[in-house]
Design goal:
Blueprint: H1 16-26, E1 34-40, E2 43-50, E3 57-61, H2 72-78, E4 83-87, E5 97-98, H3 106-120, E6 125-130, H4 132-143, E7 148-154, H5 165-176, H6 180-191, H7 199-211, E8 234-239, H8 247-257, E9 262-266, H9 280-291
Helix pairs in contact: 1-7, 5-6, 6-7
Length: 292
């Protein structure tokens, strides 16, 4: 268990309450964390790194409203074989500090991630994205297929199907009345009796919702057909209890548009709990894919 180290860069817009909540989630990491400050033309990006310094790079991109700290249940297994870089997406909740060129469009996100990978010395990397992070990872694979070694998408949203209307309706209080109570009610509804998100993560999501009121940059579904034979090996892992989208449609579209992709479903897992799920099966699937 690792406590939050001193931040590598100042983030004046982040409150002590947010920093404390962030540290409580980061303390759940089972391996030592190295906080990095990565400078790009869009500002300074916070990256939480772990694993062997000479290991192949694996870059983790979290869902909307989440931070890089929330990957605590995945990093232990991944760090045995890879140098893991969990990234606070610029403009989303986290300790990244915008500065310089504004990040406004999907093309800016691609340029930002270009800069992050280059600054990390990762000319090619495995990308793991959850939810919104899956959209970002898949979009980046279309943008720069030569830089993506492997692509793992955990219940990705806006990639192969749209959101369910009920999910969007339930999410409205997160924006209208952001806070821990709204986050707790929404996540309890979404998990519907399955494995729950950790209380520390609920608290961080609530505090982050109050302080980061802007929505992350998004756009149309990635033009996967453009990849053709350049598509990297892909793994699509779906949450069996996900209420975010129609799982059957996601699986069918992913299988059709990502030829050769492996598609698996984890029964009982909710959409938001997937990165935090204590699951030997999920660890096995990811490690076998990344090292195969």
């Amino acid at each position: 268990m690792t406590a939050e180290p001193p931040p590598p860069t100042a983030a004046p817009s982040v409150s002590p309450a947010f920093r404390a909540a962030y540290g409580q989630v980061l303390a759940l990491w089972p391996v030592p964390v190295e906080p990095l400050a990565v400078d790009t033309e869009f500002g300074t990006t916070r990256v939480n790194a772990c694993g062997p310094a000479d290991g192949p790079p694996a870059v983790l991109l979290g869902g909307g409203g989440a931070t890089s700290a929330g990957w605590y249940a995945r990093v232990g297994a991944l760090a045995r074989t890879h140098r893991v870089y969990a990234v606070d997406v610029m403009g989303a909740p986290g300790l990244s500090v915008p500065g310089g060129r504004p990040l406004r469009r999907p093309a800016d996100l691609m340029a930002w991630l270009d800069g992050v990978l280059t600054a990390l010395g990762a000319e090619r990397a495995a990308l793991l994205g959850h939810s919104y992070g899956g959209w970002l990872a898949l979009g980046y694979a279309v943008h720069a297929p030569d830089r993506v070694d492997r692509l793992a998408l955990l219940d990705p949203t806006q990639c192969f199907a749209g959101y369910r209307t009920a999910y969007l309706a339930r999410a409205v209080p997160l924006f209208v009345r952001p806070g821990e109570a709204s986050a707790r009610r929404f996540l309890a509804w979404e998990s519907r009796g399955g494995p729950a998100v950790a209380p520390e993560s609920v608290r961080l999501m609530g505090v982050g919702g109050r302080e980061f009121r802007g929505r992350p940059v998004t756009g149309p579904r990635p033009a996967v057909a453009r990849l053709g034979s350049a598509a990297p090996p892909a793994l699509v892992l779906l949450a069996g209890r996900s209420r975010a989208h129609d799982l059957r449609r996601v699986a069918e579209t992913a299988g059709r548009t990502l030829p050769g992709a492996r598609i698996a479903t984890l029964p009982g897992a909710g959409h938001h709990a997937l990165p935090e799920l204590r699951s030997a099966e999920l660890d096995r699937l990811l490690v076998e894919f990344l090292t195969g």
